[in-house]
Every structure is written in C-alpha cells, then in structure tokens.
Specification:
Chain lengths: ~170, ~850
C-alpha cells in the first residue's frame, strides 16, 4: 500500500538502526505524514517493515497522543490536559472550544476542518492554559484568543479552497 | 543467609528472597496484585507496601522490590502501611464493577480478598466508571475488561514469560486495555494460565463459565496425563463431572503453570458416550455376571492362549495388576507398546535414566545449552517449550536437530536434518568437547564409541557450516542438556543421547538428558514391559496363527495407533474372547465381547511415572457417575429411586483385574483387596520400595542413583541411507491438540483444533508442482486421502510430514512405509 519511494526511505531508516523497533515511532510518523493518519492497513504494513507483531506496534500507537489511528481533520487541536492547565482554566477553554466547533472532545467537525483531542502536558505550563494546533503551540488562551485563531484558520482554509476552485 | 524480623518474628531466608516471600514463609500474606513468584517483581500495583523500621531501607517501601537483608525490621501492620494500602485498594477499586455475584472469579478472587483484607469496605466513589469493549479471545478464555485493575500480570506472562506476541497492553493511563489487535483466539497454547494469573475476573475459564463457584467444587490434587511431563493440576468437579482444572505448583515439574491441553483436556471423562455399564456382547449386565462370565471363558482357555494389552496412558496400578493377572493365568504376552521400535527405545531410556543422567524441567530452565534431538516440544510436551524459553531468556543457547519445521517461543538454531543424521550431527557437535583420557574412565566401550564418533563422515556442507560455530558453544557451556524425542528419533540416537549426557557430566558442571516419551505413563509401562520379548506385532501374529485365543485390553485402544487396521480387525475377529476394560468410548471398546467400565484418573487414586522417572499421585476427585446435565436433559435430575448413582458403575481397573486374577487362580494367602501396591511391588522390583507410598507432594524419583545398564553399547548410525529416487519419506508426527488420544474425546479441545495440515519442503513442492496452501490428494489402496499443504523451507528435504490428526486417516498410509512415490500425490485445490 505504501508508495515505493516512501517504502524505500523507511527501509533505509530501519536498516540504520541496531534493532528495527527503535525506529517504530519514526516510521509511523512518516507514514502518518503521507496518509494523514495510521489506518489498520498502514499499521500492518509498518509492523511488517519493523518485524514487530502488529499488537506491539499498536501498543505504541495507542500510547502516544500524536499518532492518529482514525482520520483527523485538517487542523488537529490538542488541548493540554494536565495539572497546570487544569488550575488555569482548562475547563472553560475546553467548553468554549466545544461550543465554537460544535463537537465534543475526540470528534471532528462535519466540514472536516477541525479535530479536538486532549494531549498530555506539553510543557507550556508557564503560559497555561495551552493548546497545540498541528503541533504549533498557543499559550495563555482566552475565549477571544481562541475565536481569533479559529477564524483565521477557517478563512485560511477557505482561501485555499477558493484558490483550488479557481485553478481547476 | 540474611536474618530479619517481620512483625516481631525473626526469620532466616536464602539470599535473594524478597521481603514479601520472607513474610509468606512466616504465614504473613502481604497483599499483592502485580507480584507473582513465577513472573518476578515489577512494583507496579503499590499494594504490598510495608513499613521498614530498621536496616538499609527506611519507611514505606514495596515489599516485592526489596531483597531480605540482615538486620531488617519490618512491620506489615504499621498504621502508615495499613492506611497506604487501604487507599491503594480504594483507588484500584474505583472503576471495578459491582458484578461479583455474576462474575466467575467470585469466590476465589484475589481482588475480593485484598479489598476485604485491605480494609476497604465502603465505596465512596460515585462517579462514572470506565468501561471497555471486550474481545472474543477464542473458546478457552473469556474476556471481561471492565474488571481490570491494570496489574500487567497477563501481558508479562504472555509476552515475556511465554514468548507469544498477540496480546498487548494498549492505550494509556486509566484507559489501558489488555487485549489483542482484533477479536480472535489467543495464539498461545499457554493462554489458559491467564485464568489462574489474573487477580480478578478479566480472564476466566470459558468452558466452565457460569457452572460453579469455587466452593461448590470437589477439588483435589490431580495430574495431567496428556503428555509425558506429568504436570500437576488441581481438578475441580461438580455434579459428577470435572468442570475445570488449574495449575498446581510443583517446583520440580511444571512450576506455576500448565498448558491448555492439560487445563482443558479433561472432558473425555464426562464424554456423553462414555460406556458406564459392564456389557456382554451388546447386552448390559451386572458386574457380578460380567466378571463371572469373563473368568469362566478365560478359565476354559489354555494358559498360553491369553495375551494382555495395556498402554502408556494406563496408571501404574492398572499396569501392575494387569501384569500380575497375566502371570497368574500363565500368559506369555504382556504388551504396553503397539510399536516394537518404540518399545525398544523405551527399554533403552528406562535403563539409562539414573541419578547422573536424568534432569527435571526445572533443570532445563537452569541449563546454558539445550540440544534437541528429534524433539518437537510445542507439539509433544508444551510445558517443555516454556521451560526452554526460560533457559533461553537467561542466556542459554538452543540447538534443535529435527526434520520438522519446528516452532519454539524462543530463539533457536534449527538444523533441519533427517533423523538418520542425528547421530552424525550430535557426534560432530560434541566430539571435540571430550578427550580420550576422560572418556577412558568410563571403560572400553566408551572409548570404542568415542572412536566411532571421531570417524563419522563429514556432513553436507550447508549443515557443516551451521554446525561449525555451535561447536565452540558446546565447548564453552557449563550446563548442557540434551532433549531427546522418542518417536521420530531412531533407537541409536535415543541411546546415544544418554551416552553423550553421561560423558558430558565428566567435563561439565552439570549435564543430563531429558526424554520426551510417548504417553503419560510410558516410563511406567516400560518398567513392567521391559524384560519381556513380546511385542504387539507378535501378539497379532499369534492370534492369526490361532495360538492366542483371548486378548485382555486394559485402558488401551490399538485401533487408534496400529497402522494396518484391517489386519487388526481380522485378527480380533478370530479371537474367542476380547475382554476390554476402559473409560473411553473407543473403537476397541465397541468391538469387545465383554466390556468392563473403569474409572478415569479423576475417579480413583492413581499413580503415573513421568518422563524423568518421577512417580506422582493423582487423588480421587469425585465418585464416578453420569454428569447430572446428561441425565437431566438440562433440567431437574430425574426423580428415580434406586440404590447407587446413575452411571456410577465404573470401578478402578486394578480392582477388577485383581478380582479376575484371584477368581481364576486361588491361592492361600491372598493379598489385600484394598491396596494395589503389594501386587505392584511384586511385579516390579523398582516399585517394591514404595509399598507404603503415600505420595510425597512433589512426587518421588524412582530412578536408581547409578544405573547398572550398559552405557555406550549402542551402535551409531553413521552411514545414512540414501532415499529412493522419486520418493518422499512419510513422517507421521504429533500436534499439540490434535493427536493426543484422550483429548480427541474431549469436546472442549475438539472445538479448538485446527484442520490437519501436511508439510513439504519448498524444493520438493516445486518438484511436485505444488504450492503453499494447495490441497493435496494422496492415492491409497482404497481411494484418496486429502489434506491441506504447507510449504516450508525450514524443514528437511525429502519428507512429507503428516500429523496423526484425529480427523485425518494417517493409518491408511502404512503401505507407503518404505517411501511415497511422488506421482501418488495429486493436487485437488479447488
């Protein structure tokens, strides 16, 4: 299922390791970068490349916050779900995000634009409450700040869409 | 040895003992979940916290993580420790459902015990509980993840200890999920141990589900008799049938675990068609009449016209009394093995196992080199594979010589050579370890054998290349053990393995030979059968000649094992009397002229001798009788009045045989009718010492310290025959669940066995134009045999490997004993 170029790249990465399993996370990231998420077929393929049992790879995939086993939206919002943020307004931030996006934690908006997920502490405790969007960090969140971010991302996505429409 | 004080009591324990175990020796059970002696410590559950008052550690510590040391003073009842543990149990219980009344673990649940003993009586948590979706894990183990307290015992056993890779710990934090990637049967034949290991009801015994609480069961120490290892079990019966079996700790044999064949194979004893009444012809009769008629008919025959047949699954009691009977009626024939070659090998094995050469399963775990000679542990003796894995985890090297495409749950070096090359390979592997001077200590014969070893022909270049680096390993090892099979291994190799083990003992710290035998009591059968020239082949011959007119068969089914069934059928038809005693609904039982029902292992105290010569006892668990569900049509038991239990007629075989013997031949001082051991002792000198044998908890090794047998007397097979051109050698082999006799009557096991499958080397397959997963058809005398094919390059060339699967008539292939012409194999892939 993998494109030849990607497969060869992964095989090279794996061959450089002393034990193939050292590269498990890296391999999953690369595949995820290509497909957007780790499908069951992708997991099987990755396990084969790494000579790991599929359940061994699944243990890692389900442990880490940044490997997605289901399709996600264009923007993955990961709200920091740890002690400092809890003290600093995590709950109201989450409530606001859910209300604005009209989804619950773990869901994707119907337009496929946003997915809302929790993350383990992202180390931004001095600027809590914090969140990541596609791995970019946003701190000292307020309802207004979130609105601004979401609006900007929405219009960005729309402009990309219009561009694509005009191009075709 | 460190001395420490626990709860004001002093104790001295061996070095390396954990504090939690030291306390247990004093009878103080420190609460625990993740700690299990078989698996070791991880310190994950925090339940075993105790207060260290004096010594190198201070304060609250996990007692499973700290080795006992001199001068430690520990309190398990300190207020701080009690409070800590009370909180631990409370948060472990947060998500645990309140389903004890419908949970199969209820009544023997560690979590229940710990909750109560931890002082957590009232639940304060009123939030929502975490829930999971359960998985289908096959027919043997039931999954119920909501009950999980995340102790990790299951994954530690399954992956680290047992070496299988299809169960994992998924997710993170409070969502941690123990399961497979997707629904499906657990692949490990040791999966049943999860039932014993799980401290609560996440994994429960599926066939016994909703059948009984622990306290409803008649429980007692029993044995697994599905292979020759003699693993110890606890059997639990209710309503006249065994419902479940658990592993019973035996430090020398199985340790804490058993395999699934041993755990779930028991259902033969409650088989719905099990014959339970004495019978003459097809007519059910009373015991008195049946025995009287049998005796009468036997008495009319001449002394030399009676033959006795038993098997390696019969107990020592059955074998001993049958031998006694055979002698009393003047029979020349007492046979326990169907195959003369197996009988010969068994004789060799019994004579060569002694204090110097025999090793236990525990010794295997401690070995640093394991050399397999024609042994397939996973299929022939699964717990052996588990012991080998423990050795390998501790650094041992495993080398297996076998033509089969072996699988082991550990890394190993596989020399896929034909059985004829075992002697050459073993010689090549070990000869440089010995020198003439040392070998000379064992006498002339040893030197002659050593010279033969030195003279053996060089091997095939590819095998030699694989052997070369292993020779250094053999030279460098300190505790080598040879694991030797007894089915496909030729007699010369069986004998040679013991010789090598004895010589190794001279140059190594510890050495030995571990045989895998063809039956739970094969060792016992060989003891009684040894000094006897008769074979089953000669019995059949004499029946055909008309010399033998009566055959007494005790707990044996020749139809299952004998290849030429038509000939056997014709021979049995000639008999004047076929007297059969058994507890299985076998073909031989159906053909009996007189049938006498006997008791299965769970219904009478019986003894078995395992493959290292360890005499072990299984206690009576319950009285015989038709299981209530079978007579009640799943409703209320029938309201019939009568004396005795419905289907309760079976008697211990030894009682019946002794009665027949005493009816036929009266003598002045009859031996006690309630104890079979005087008779057994009279028939077997080795067992005579065990008259008063009351079954020590861990069995008793009956092997001599130094065998008087002639070691080094076998002739090595150093010139292997060339196979016939265009022929494949047939190799009928064992397969874990599918080939064992008792398990083939066990409904639970029948649910889990796969379809039979033949193996062929990829080169041979190419030659025959066959592909992996093809269905092949072999032309036999009266039609065709069909079987699925697996093509492998991890096996020897020139063989077609076939399982003695209960759903595959492998016996029909006996006409190809000299080789199967490849043109007889057709492809019938749809």
């Amino acid at each position: 299922m993998l494109p030849d170029q990607l497969r060869q790249h992964l095989q090279k990465v794996i061959s450089e390791a002393e034990y193939p399993r050292e590269k498990a996370i890296e391999v999953m990231y690369e595949i995820q970068k290509h497909f957007g998420y780790m499908s069951d077929a992708a997991m099987q393929e990755a396990a084969r490349l790494l000579t790991m049992a599929p359940v061994e790879l699944e243990e890692l995939a389900t442990f880490y916050d940044f490997i997605f086993r289901e399709p996600v939206g264009k923007y993955v919002i990961q709200i920091c779900d740890s002690a400092m943020c809890w003290l600093d307004g995590y709950e109201s931030i989450l409530e606001h995000l859910c209300a604005r996006l009209n989804i619950r934690l773990g869901e994707t908006t119907s337009d496929g634009l946003f997915t809302l997920l929790p993350a383990c502490c992202i180390g931004y405790c001095d600027r809590s409450p914090a969140m990541l969007i596609n791995r970019r960090v946003y701190g000292r969140l307020t309802a207004e700040k979130i609105d601004r971010i979401l609006d900007r991302l929405r219009s960005l996505a729309e402009s990309v869409q219009t561009d694509q429409a005009t191009m075709s | 040895m460190p001395r420490l004080t626990i709860d004001d009591i002093e104790i001295e324990v061996p070095h390396g003992t954990k504090v939690i175990d030291a306390a247990e020796r004093l009878g103080i059970m420190i609460p625990r979940f993740c700690y299990h002696r078989g698996l070791g410590s991880v310190g994950a559950c925090r339940m075993c916290a105790v207060k260290f008052l004096q010594g190198p550690f201070k304060g609250l510590q996990m007692s499973c993580m700290i080795d006992a040391q001199d001068g430690m003073v520990i309190s398990t009842t300190d207020a701080e420790a009690l409070d800590f543990r009370r909180h631990v149990i409370e948060w472990l219980m947060l998500n645990h459902p309140h389903d004890c009344p419908v949970c199969d673990e209820g009544g023997h649940c560690l979590l229940q015990d710990m909750t109560v003993s931890g002082g957590h009586g009232m639940r304060r948590f009123s939030g929502e509980k975490r829930t999971y979706r359960d998985q289908y894990l096959g027919e043997l183990v039931q999954h119920e993840m909501n009950r999980c307290i995340h102790c990790y015992r299951c994954v530690r056993f399954y992956r680290e200890f047992a070496g299988y890779r299809d169960l994992g710990a998924l997710q993170i934090a409070q969502k941690v999920y123990f399961g497979r990637l997707a629904d499906g049967p657990l692949e490990s034949p040791f999966a049943g141990n999860l039932v014993d290991l799980c401290p609560t009801g996440v994994y429960t015994d599926k066939p016994a589900r909703f059948r009984a609480r622990r306290w409803d069961l008649e429980r007692g120490p029993s044995l697994c008799i599905h292979c020759s290892l003699g693993c110890n079990t606890v059997a639990g019966a209710r309503y006249r049938e065994v419902l479940r079996q658990e592993a019973r700790l035996n430090e020398e044999v199985n340790g804490y675990f058993i395999c699934d064949l041993g755990r779930y194979g028991f259902a033969y004893a409650g088989h719905p068609e099990r014959p339970r009444s004495p019978r003459i012809g097809s007519q059910a009769v009373g015991w008195q009449e049946a025995v009287a008629v049998a005796c009468d008919r036997l008495a009319r025959l001449g002394p030399r016209s009676i033959a006795c047949l038993s098997s390696a699954r019969a107990s020592v009691e059955t074998l001993g009394t049958l031998k006694y009977l055979s002698k009393r009626v003047g029979s020349d024939h007492f046979v326990c093995f169907y195959d003369a070659a197996v009988k010969f090998k068994m004789g060799e094995i019994v004579s060569k196992l002694d204090g110097r050469t025999a090793v236990s399963l525990r010794d295997i775990e401690k070995a640093d080199l394991l050399i397999g000679v024609g042994a397939d542990p996973i299929n022939a003796a699964p717990m052996l594979a588990l012991a080998m894995r423990q050795a390998q985890r501790a650094g041992a090297k495993v080398v297996m010589m076998d033509p089969r495409p072996l699988f082991l749950p550990c890394d190993f070096e596989h020399l896929s050579v034909s059985p004829e090359l075992f002697d050459v390979c073993l010689s090549a592997l070990v000869k440089s370890t010995f020198d003439r001077e040392r070998v000379g200590k064992h006498g002339e014969a040893a030197v002659t054998l050593y010279d033969r070893m030195l003279s053996c022909d060089p091997l095939d270049a590819s095998v030699q290349a694989r052997l070369e680096p292993l020779i250094a390993v053999v030279e460098g090892c300190r505790r080598p053990i040879i694991i030797c099979g007894s089915d496909i291994a030729p007699a010369s190799s069986v004998s040679f393995a013991a010789d090598v083990a004895l010589l190794m003992g001279e140059v190594k710290d510890q050495s030995g030979v571990f045989y895998v035998l063809p039956g739970a009591n094969a060792y016992g059968a060989a003891l009684f059968d040894a000094a006897n020239g008769s074979s089953f082949e000669s019995v059949v011959q004499e029946i055909e000649d008309g010399a033998i007119k009566a055959l007494i068969v005790a707990e044996s089914d020749p139809f299952r094992y004998v290849a030429d069934r038509d000939r056997l059928q014709r021979a049995l038809n000639k008999l004047e009397l076929l007297l059969v005693l058994d507890y299985l609904p076998s073909e031989t039982v159906r053909k009996a002229h007189i049938f006498l029902p006997t008791r299965a292992i769970f219904e009478t105290r019986s003894s078995f001798i395992n493959q290292e010569g360890r005499l072990q006892v299984a206690e009576k668990i319950h009285s015989p009788g038709t299981p209530i569900w079978q007579v009640s049509n799943k409703g209320h038991p029938p309201r019939l009045y009568g004396t005795g239990i419905c289907g309760g007629e079976p008697r211990a075989a030894w009682r019946v045989l002794q009665q027949i013997a005493h009816t036929l031949v009266h003598s002045q001082n009859e031996i006690s009718e309630n104890d079979p051991w005087p008779v057994i002792g009279g028939e077997c000198a080795v067992l005579a010492r065990h008259h008063q044998h009351n079954g020590p908890l861990h069995g008793l090794r009956i092997i001599p310290q130094t065998s008087t047998a002639a070691f080094f007397d076998g002739d090595l097979d150093l010139q292997p025959k060339q196979p016939m051109d265009g022929h494949l050698t047939l190799l009928p082999v064992v397969s874990t669940f599918a080939t064992e006799e008792l398990a083939s009557y066990s409904e639970i096991i029948q649910r889990v066995i796969g379809s039979p499958c033949a193996y062929l080397h990829s080169d041979d397959a190419e030659r025959c134009g066959l592909l992996d997963c093809d269905r092949i058809r072999i032309a036999v005398d009266d039609g065709f045999l069909e079987i699925d094919l697996t093509v492998s390059d991890k096996m020897a060339r020139g063989f077609l490997i076939l399982p003695r699967h209960s759903r595959f008539e492998w016996q029909k292939l006996h006409c190809f004993a000299q080789g199967l012409p490849v043109e007889k194999i057709g492809n019938c892939t749809p």
